[in-house]
Amino acid sequence: xxxxxxxLTNQSGVVLEKTVNLKYNDKDVTxxxxxxxxxxVTKWNCTTDALTRKTTAxxxxxxAYLSIERPSSQDDLKYWGLDAFTLSQQMTGLKPGKYEIGxxxxxxxxxxxxxxxxxxxxxxxxxxxxxxxxxxxxxxxxENVKVTVWVGEDGTLTYGVTNKTNQNHGYSFNGMNLxxxxxxSLIYLGEESLAEDFAALRDEAQM
Length: 207
Prior knowledge:
The chain is mainly beta. It has one helix at residues 194-205, and strands at 2-9, 15-22, 45-46, 51-54, 65-69, 85-91, 97-108, 124-128, 131-134, 143-151, 157-163, 178-190. 6% of the residues lie in helices and 41% in strands.
């Protein structure tokens, strides 16, 4: 643990002091991820060659981040949407148990504004293991998305973003044409809640 001390002298010469205690969180294992700040294209598996490293400012994406985009129509088509893709990474050597994994993600129709920029984005998911969470965002700000997932005895976890359909077919010209992600987090939640989770699943199955 650490202490952060702020000292400020006011106009009367009185020194004002504020102490903040910084407590180390041993459950935060984000630092063990291969590329938590999404800066290295070579550390990710991607089914499209459109993956690039960008630095254009978007709220929620800091510094460099990874992006897949189609900036304009191609082959004289009016459609802007991205074709299906999966962008993933795999961790090994994790302690078995429950984890919360999150990221800041943009999944949007670039060129639109406000709610319209996210309204036609479909079939795009942030995922870890077999857990999928649908994601869409406005053009000017990333959405913080989190899921909880169990890691088994093999200690492996695959995670990332998947676009399950060709967005330039079936959703008109408003399909997603920009995906970006940054700032991953990984928190170990332990093993003690396993029985509670199984009980919740059982109850849900019986409804």
